[in-house]
Amino acid sequence: MNTKSRVVSESAYRTFRQFALILCPFTFFFDAAIHFRGKINLSLPVTYILLILLNGGLVLVVTLTIRSFLIYRKSIKSDTFSFLQSIKKKFKEYLPVTLVALLFTVLAGFQFDMVPRYDGGQYYDAIITATQTFSFTLHSLVSSFILLLHPMQGTSLLLGVGEMIFPKQSVGVYGVTLLLSVVSIFCLYQIMGKIYTEVGNWMKAAGTAVFAFCPYVLGLFSHISPDYITMLLFIMLVYTFSEELDYLAAFLTVLLIFSRETGILFAGSFLVPAMLVRMSGINETGFLKKARKYLLPKKLCLYLCGPVLFACYLMYTKGLKFGESFTKKTSFRWDSNGVFCFGINIGYIAVRMEQFLYFNFFWIITLLLFFAIVVLLFRMRRKKGVEIPSQKSDLSLVMGILLSTIVFMGFSCLYITIPCPRYAVSFALPMSIACVGAIIYIWKRKIVRTIVIIGLIVLLLIQNYYNVDPVLTLGNKKINLGYEYIYSPTGNFAFMNTGFVGEMYVYNRTFDYSEDLLSQALRKIDPDKNDNFLFVDMTWYELYMVGDILQTKNLIYWNSVQQKRTYDNTADGSFLLKMKAIPKKDLLPDNSDVWDDDFYLFLTAYQPDEIYCNDLVVDGYTLLDSFRVKNYIGYLSVYHFVRADN
Question: Residue 47 pLDDT > 90, yes or no?
Fold first, then answer.
């Protein structure tokens, strides 16, 4: 087979493969909606037609993909021995990153029993409601999947499949998230190879591990949020763009734009400089000729799909609404002393920069970058010239990722919102890439490079579960959980410096310290529908006993059969626990008329249990029994009180 035929067969294989991957989420979403939701407003003929078109189309494209692959393999005249050698080479190439992905999968798997809480609980509540109310119309597709006023249709197309297959169990959402995470790990490994072309496979895998085991990534895997998914989609977009997989890259651009508002920033600020760099390499004279040859007609049409669809979305919904539910004002206003608006607030900017460049051992990577600059200046002075690394990097990726990082940082500093630490998850990507670059530039010996990056990975892994990063202790509010402190990495920005564990404390796995404690306590109590539970102040929210009773429709139930907490109220043995939360002042004498005659008092480690219990005894209650449940982070004390005259 001649060269032209080989090129045609390879192009066909790449094209069909992309269409297969694009059709998959649509087909799976529709199939899941048809088979698992149980409610449908489509006629039977229309339903069958859609099922045949989507599933038949997917089968057809997959078949064409396999066929084109076989033709392509035949065109390169690959015998069995060469094919086996190729497989062996690929195995060696992907072994390091496969080990990283396997370890991530195992560690993430331990989080599958985590019940979504705080903002994660609100987003999960929104996903439950969205999949329940989806009615197979264009209006429903748009309106149902505007989650907490954010355009999340792209995210919902993926996560919604898991939720509909495993409704109100969260494991379906976790399963899809894990799949996307693993795919992103492999994509980042390839991106590392395109940026650092002369670095070995193990170093590229180590750089990928810095990303995967970052506390903002692994530690917040089960904290359902659009920021996490946006980051994963962005990594996939960067990889598909680097491989010239234009159909798939354009599709990912659409998903990214409809993952959250920040997805628009990532997509645009990456694609524009990346395309400009690619265009500069076109063998034409003049910018317009280069642009015409590179963009027209395919690339321009494909990459305009996302912006055009988003423009249509804005006209349909009459603009973006994020932040308005809190302030009743548009977010597109300037007020440096306000919130959910643009402005220059030095305290807020300082917090954001600390979260991006400082906390969770990011300060080590920042220092490495600083030292790399110092080494660069030293070598320039010694050699009387700029020492340029010999790496033949894909500059389009470097410039795209660099500009997207700067744009996101600028937006995050100028748009004043609640300083949730989880927003820093997007910086795990540029920091992991910069980490590898700094290490290989500073140290020439491979053994030193290996020791430094492995040491960093070990610190990151530990930081996922224990707060060993010393900078967290400096100037941040802390709460004693019993055996470990949890910190609020919000610095001196006092807007949300809360005294109870909540969203401002979500930066690694320590925020879910009470999940295991609650399960232990409830299994020991073995409650029924008549048992009462009392909480003081906001500990009901900190422990997330039944969920967010103020902002969510879907609460958390206790399943007496499976002995676990769940959002699934339809399972046998599930019932809502009777919970009452009272202000601390109501725990004083003469206020006992607001309490039940028989209740369990739940107190966290930092609450004055002796004072509270003594007050209850003075108020005429008898302590029947008490116990304490523990885990490696802290403990929870439970007291069973009854009214003395009962």
Answer: no
